[in-house]
Amino acid sequence: MNQYDDCWLRYERVGSDKRLDSYQRRCRHAYVAEKSPECGAVRDELRRALSGLLGEDPHFWQHPPTTVDGFLAIGTPDDMAMIAESVPGDDIADLEDGGYLIRSVTWNDADCLVVTAPTDRGLVYGTFHLLRLLGTGEPIDDLDVREEPAYANRLLNQWDTPFHRSVERGYAGESIFDWERLPDLRSRYEDYARLLASVGINGIVLNNVNTTKPQRASANAAFDAFEGWQLLESRRLEDLTGLVSLFRRYGIRPYLSVNFAAPMLVGDLDTADPLDEDVREWWRKKADEIYDLVPDFGGFLVKADSEGQAGPYDYDRDHVDGANAIAQALEPHGGRVWWRAFVYGSHEDRAVQAYDTFEPLDGEFAENVTVQIKNGPIDFQPREPVSTLFGAMPETDLGLELQITQEYTGQGVHATYHLPMWKEIFEFDTHADGEGTPVRSLFRGDGEGVVGVGNVGEDYNWTGHYLAQANLYAFGRAAWDPDRSAEAITREWVRLTFGADEDVVDTVTEILRDSWAACIDYETGGLGLMHMMHNGEEYLENHYYPSPEEWPGYHGASEDGIGVDRTESGSGYVTQYRDPVAERYGSVETCPEELLLFFHHLPWDHELADGTTVVQRLYDNCFAGVEEVERLRNLWHSLEGRVDERRYRHVAERFDEQVAQAERWQDVLTSTVREYSGMPDERGRARDE
Ligand code: GCU
């Protein structure tokens, strides 16, 4: 038996005879370029996949076969004359790195398929695309696919903490990386690389952004176990080389999170002042050492002056000084610093701080620095408005950071699918360049991209909850092509993961589609409140939650009303948006209901557009959220016998827990509302303490 699940790379036998015939004709014989590690990965994948899908091993040729009805050819036009003859060079010349073509062609009277690309990485992606078509039963006799990634960087941030193998905000067991045993490799590393490459992820930051215990008091008491700065020690770097070669086969570049004080922690300097020449020299030597070992090393991710991690402020320097000092060391090697904008603590309203800190620095960062910004101004809440920094730093490379792991959306217990949230973020019009500048149109430079905080661990199912595999899948697919519809991405995942039964596909797609909205309702009341999750549940332990005493700062509740005034007369956060966004959010009349209490403090009996009061809407949404989860659970129950027992039971059990916890969340939230407002639920459901 497998030691872990295959996720969406199941490669089960093709069901339809018609399809099987066509797949066999074009794919049973394969002629694949041989020159690079990526081509090796392509061949291995074909071997695994085709033996499953077609029921027989593919036959590999060293030259184009002339005695068969058809074959599959994979290579660059430079590798193979047959490909150069079949696909005009101009067709691929201008593809972005990673782009590829797949075509059905006739060659020498044989029915062939060609997967070609300007780079070997593109061949890996093209192969996975083709296998996805076979896995979802699509026709391949008339293919003409041209694909290229929307963003140059599609990175995964592991929040894995060496060396005790914990994963911060991880809900799927310990880290899959057995740090102490490196350089020994586990087959799971390769299977992880396959999963990532199959959805187009091209970079991985191997360790957590928190690389030491907080140096200063921090809101997050759970941080005591952090380490990871040691990865810059020479022996640790040497240990990583095998692991990174394995990722290289799949076109995935490695990165490390580093500590700003590394010159003191790893080196023996007595300062980490970014303007100190010895410090800069230390970073240069360290970078030279790394690139000697790993020539395609991607660079460093830095969390500085944030939640107790060291940073340039320790030396009265700013973020530009800090980021540029490290960047100058990586620059000769083509490496990049991803510098996080997640800073808060000095402003009464934390939403204001990132923009206040970073926007004035626009244009001052080195060319190889990317400022990595969380999607919203707070911290991966179930729903937040989009960060004001997007579109506000035109002279700086920016990255969008999303959270794949479900820190605030039910962790390993709740079925909460993040793609609808990410779609909302991508579609948000920043008006940065006038109307029609959605978030998805940003991050298009070579040093920009989309980053996801991973959700994988050692559990059999990788992600703690079988349905959470969909979040990893969707992240990669959306970062490759943010224009692809949520429905298409979701159905693709369900088909690959649960098979072709249309009822199963429809039902699981519906569950995923509606799960996020339900979570927002039972967790926040659906009007833009945040950081109000019920404390004390076991599964919420690995999670930052403000204690009830801190809640008022987040929900702004008092006897007279609820919400936080972030308009000009309040914290002023709204003024950081461009017009007309600032105007829309700034006015109670035009602010969308789902964010109303994020931007405004309103009387409890303020009437919403349909005449319902704020207090009543909070009650209604909280109860509706619970009812919705019950409906989703029933939908899952309708699949009994149609999904294998192991996965059926796992998800069914979690749904029971989710319903119970949603009820408790609803209960705590509605009784808090009841207590502050003194106004009962007019439908008599909310508990009166
Ligand atoms: C949140 C989260 C932390 C994490 C931090 C970050 O505060 O709870 O676990 O370290 O974000 O993004 O750095």
Notes on the structure:
The mean pLDDT is 94. This protein has 689 residues and is an alpha/beta fold. Helix content is 36%, strand content 12%. It has helices spanning 17-27, 37-54, 81-86, 89-93, 120-135, 187-198, 234-248, 262-265, 277-293, 319-330, 353-358, 419-427, 469-480, 486-498, 502-524, 551-555, 581-586, 596-599, 614-637, 645-677; strands spanning 29-32, 59-61, 70-74, 100-107, 110-116, 144-147, 153-157, 160-161, 166-167, 203-205, 253-258, 299-302, 336-340, 369-374, 397-403, 449-453, 561-562, 602-603. The chain contains 20 helices and 18 strands. The strands form four sheets. An eight-stranded parallel barrel has the order 7-10-11-12-13-14-15-16. Helix 15 (502-524) runs antiparallel to helix 19 (614-637). It folds into three domains: 17-147, Chitobiase, domain 2 (2-Layer Sandwich), CATH 3.30.379; 155-485, Glycosidases (TIM Barrel), CATH 3.20.20.80; 520-564 and 601-677, Alpha-glucuronidase, C-terminal domain (Alpha-d-glucuronidase, C-terminal Domain, Alpha-Beta Complex), CATH 3.90.1330.10. The longest helix is centred in the C-terminal third of the chain and has 33 residues, at 645-677. The structure holds alpha-D-glucopyranuronic acid. Alpha-D-glucopyranuronic acid (GCU) is lined by residues 168-169, 209-210, 220, 303, 307, 342, 379, 407, 544. Alpha-D-glucopyranuronic acid (GCU) binds next to loops. Residues 463-685 form the Glycosyl hydrolase family 67 C-terminal domain. Residues 7-130 form the Alpha glucuronidase N-terminal domain. Residues 136-462 form the Glycosyl hydrolase family 67 catalytic domain.
